[in-house]
Amino acid sequence: MDTSLYVGLSKQMILRRELDVAANNIANADTTGFKVETMTVAADPLTPPGSPTSTQPIQYVIDTGLARNFSQGALQSTGAPLDVAIDGDGFFQVSTAAGTQFTRDGRFATNAQGQLVTQAGDPVLDASGSPISLSVSGGPASIAADGTISQALPGQAQSQIVGKLGVVSFASLSALSKAGNGLYTNNGAAPSPSTKSMIHQGMLESSNVQPILQVTDLIRISRAYDQLSSVMNNTADLSSRSIQRLGSVQ
């Protein structure tokens, strides 16, 4: 196959992956706490065979991974007492079967034992890494800006502190990788208590996806793919005609 077709094919593979990423962003435009993703690519130079001294290497395109934009989404009021949003940097800590993971999705509830849990039923952790338990027979929980949870307990006139949300941050967000269900793993990076964030009760953080930009990106990718296909087809046709003409020479 002509070298130009290999180069074009490498770019087509990148465009197909970009299309998947943009489509996934649009699909999660209404997902609480979702962070928009973009592909990262790089040129992969390769010296043409038979030309070890060539100074004009072939430039293939390779997928080097995903970049995630952790900028904050808009905070939306829900009025639900156990919905909480982080204003600023930081993540909630969650105990999962795979260990402690982290999320911006504050759609919490309580299980039969009174533990504060995520939508998937995983316990939400406090600053010490322990599950947070509310009184099943107590009054509605009140969550302060620093994450302190208070509740009126049976037989007591005043509300008592029953726990505190453990909000942590990371020196480098590039250490986080997506684990599914709005969760992230820290891959060994040490979390530290977040000191520049506030908790808002009765609110959720919406996705930071801007659908118009993603739709525009889908159009750009589709056009680029079609144009590249046209160029590759023309190149293949040119090669085929050249071979036919050479073969007809007596």
What does this structure look like?
With 250 residues, the protein is of the alpha+beta class. The chain folds into two domains: 108 residues; 131 residues, no CATH class. Helix content is 25%, strand content 30%. It has two helices and 17 strands. It has a six-stranded antiparallel beta sheet with strand order 13-14-6-5-12-15, with no helix packed on it. A three-stranded antiparallel beta sheet has the order 9-10-11, with no helix packed on it. A two-stranded antiparallel sheet has the order 1-2. β10 and β11 form a beta hairpin. The longest helix has 38 residues. The two termini are 25 Å apart. The model has no long low-confidence stretch (mean pLDDT 87).
The succession of helices and strands, N to C, reads HEEEEEEEEEEEEEEEEEH
The total strand number stands at 17
Work out the helicity level.
25-40%
Query: Average pLDDT value?
Result: 87
Largest beta sheet: strand ordering: 13-14-6-5-12-15
Q: Unreliable runs, pLDDT <50, ≥5 residues?
A: none
Distance between the termini: 25 Å
Total discrete domains: 2
